[in-house]
Amino acid sequence: MSDDRGRVDNDFSGHSGAVIQAGLIQGNVNLRTVTETPLPSPRQLPPATKGFIDREVHIQQLDSLLDEVELITDKSRLPVVTISTISGSAGVGKTALAVHWAHRVRERFPDGDLYINLRGYDAVPPLTPHEALDGFLRAMDVPAEKVPRDLHDRTALYRSLTTGRRMLILLDNAATAEQVRPLLPAAPSCMVIITSRSRLSGLTVRDGAIRAVLDVLSRHDATRLLRVTVGADRVDRQPEMVDRLIELCSHLPLALRIVADRARLDEERPLAELVEELTAEESRLDALAVEEDDLSAVRTVFSWSYQALAAETARVFRLVGLHPGADIALDAAVRLTGLAPSVTRRHLDSLVGLHLLTRSGPHRFRLHDLLRLYAMERATLDESPQAVHAARERLLRWYLHHTYAAYRAILPQGRPLPDVDVPPDATLDDALRWCEHERLNLLDVIRAAPGWGHHRLGWQIALASMAFFERRSYWKAWIDSHLAGLDCARHLGDRRAEGWLLLSLGDAWWDRGDLDEAGRCYAGALHAAREVGDAWTTGYALRGCGLVDEDRGDFPEATRYAQEALRTFRQLGEERGTGLALMSLGNAQRGAGRFAEALVSYDDAMRVFERLGNRWSQGLVALHRGQTLLHTGEPAPALAAVTSAAALFRELGDRRHAALARAYEGDAHLQLRQPHAAREALADALLTLLELDDPLAADVRRRLAAIDHDDAAGTDQGDQDG
């Protein structure tokens, strides 16, 4: 849990090395040169489909829209962003069309292209606009610490960054207009392509989107596809069988490609035999078809292709379908199947070759949403319930292993998870890299765990993921994962786990500045922890209640909570908690004007953190101590304290706290009647806080303006005296 926090309410965009964004700054501002190398323009389009059969009408429509983007000449109209929606049923080729056209024209968008699968109709929850914008902003070279937390602020920054740029944005598999609207740029030089099973009429009415409805292939185009994929001579020799294959595939490009791959396995085999097999399989699966089931249209084709797989490859296919996330890593597939990595990789490569799986990145794979549903269906039919349960448990334990390794790397002094094997030490970079790859899957896995009957693993993964979500400011994922974990703990009646999860939820809400929610969670954690005698959670929940009261200005209550937390930690022998409670006690005493007592508490906290070797907390104590000395009118020792804190934070790479310490250096210089040094320190702090979009920049700006106002008033008085 952080001891100080900031809220993002000021947006910065662009690629300047040093920028001050403010209403008014008076006096001298010293700029530092930033030499970071920006990332290249994003190029995120997935590979185009091989052997794509042009949908001429739709290609021409998209080309005409592109001309509008490039030739905005009517100055009497307000230019607007060009939006095209491509809708149609599952497997009809919406994504293939959008990606194919985007590759044709991507060079006409020199500032890059953005792509995201919004998972509108996958087996897992759709991506939220908040999550999608996070990925877009990072792709556009926005550092993690500068990505706003609020959806409105993320949208504003995204639109600022796309203004003046020529970019192509492809939003794939959207569910609703509300999911898409925050992802629309405001720049007329950008173009947006959206695919969805829904017509997204709201975008047409409100946002001026041009709508294209993609139907299944005509017989002519379906024949063209088979001529390209199976072979022109072979198709032309057997027109009646080709027509029957097209009918059995429901004219769907996805199904036709699977059939074509089967046909290519034996070039001498008559197409009539394929028709016979497919017809027999269709009748066998009629009982599984239901009205308005997207899978029904192609289930026969999938089954026919599935039955042709080698037994072990078929098993890999259906077990991979049990993974709940958007894509799956090779190592996760290894855990699901229980096979050696090289063997698993060989089967996955075979599935890719048959279009039953696609590659989504190095050592990562993805199932089309219809294929995922079919694979899950086959797992239910062809695996025993015990085998499915065991495979899911292996997968969950793999996620727990890696999230816990990241937890230990990020929070080495954090509380160990009970009854969980200690993973080998991981470097911080490796841990964060793995978590980023699995970020979208983590929440899906935690949500799936209770439905699989693995409630304990569900809350354990939720708690283990907290360290990563906090470090990277994924606040929504942090809260959502813990709410799901809380349901798991309550299902089990595990009050100890419930208290710990509520404590962590309180931290998330406190960091976001929602004191009401934080207070409720801390109070709930305290009640649960006391009920089961969990002294660790009791101590930290008491301190959390004190943090809320301190922020509300109720310093007597904050003092009481800090003292009670201190007693709890000392009885438990929890050294880090003892130091934090002493620091909280000092803050409450300072807020109440009891400065001498606060200094004693800070000195005691400093000794604890020195014993632990916790240098960051040492810097924080020095910062608070310096603030207190300023209140007591001792600017020289205050300056020494905050200067040492600033140096320590800079060494540890904490720019925010280094800036806060620098601001208090300015206050100390002012008390020492050194206005030039004060102005320099405050301007230096202001620059950094503005770069970080920190709301405390407003207070520093006010302090800086007060110096210049006093200087101006003194000058005016001197002129009058003269």
TrEMBL record:
Pfam families: TPR_12. InterPro entries: P-loop_NTPase (IPR027417), TPR-like_helical_dom_sf (IPR011990), TPR_rpt (IPR019734). Gene3D superfamilies: P-loop containing nucleotide triphosphate hydrolases, Tetratricopeptide repeat domain. This is Tetratricopeptide repeat protein.
